[in-house]
Amino acid sequence: ARMMGKALFALLNVSAVLFFAHAFTPLASLSRGTPSRTVTRGTCANFRMTAADAALHRQRRGFIAAVLTLPLLPKQAISDGADDVVVNGEMRLEVGSDKKLAAVGGKAVAKVALRCVGKGIISQTDVEINLPDFPPPGQPKAGESGGVPFVVKASDLFAKTEKGYTVTRDLWADDDIFVAVDVSSPAGKRILRGIGKAKMKPVNGVNAHQKPLILLE
Description:
4 helices
């Protein structure tokens, strides 16, 4: 009985080797020129693999490994980066606002808040402003620059809005973004305010946020 058991075990080992050799031999060898093995249904014979077959087999294994690795990459590496611009806008003083700014020493802090309708505030950043940097007060005339620039990047965005929405590109990329700017004196008193909108419009077939001009009054 012991001898029969050993013989059966050896037979099973040989069968397992034959099965796996058949399963993992590249299929390309069956259809390219003279096949490197002869295969009929239910049988396996001649398990030699050519150098070309071996190379193709390694390429297939490498491709599968690369595809399986993609979901393991950090999301930031395959989505929008921290330097991606969300809103690129400008601030300008209304007539009389220049005097209010001058009254607090000509320097102040502008708090720029971005909001998506129904979803909440997605960003709030501080921009230091100086009176000499502004063009003449009032709406820009033909040929005049818009005003003092400000930029809000993806790195400035909140993780969540006050309404509980997670801030991702899908939340803001295809919607108008409303902009509110509150200007405070060095003592922390609000002296000016302006609102505007970065409207979403197609440009050359691609949706893009327009540059808002915020008039401070």
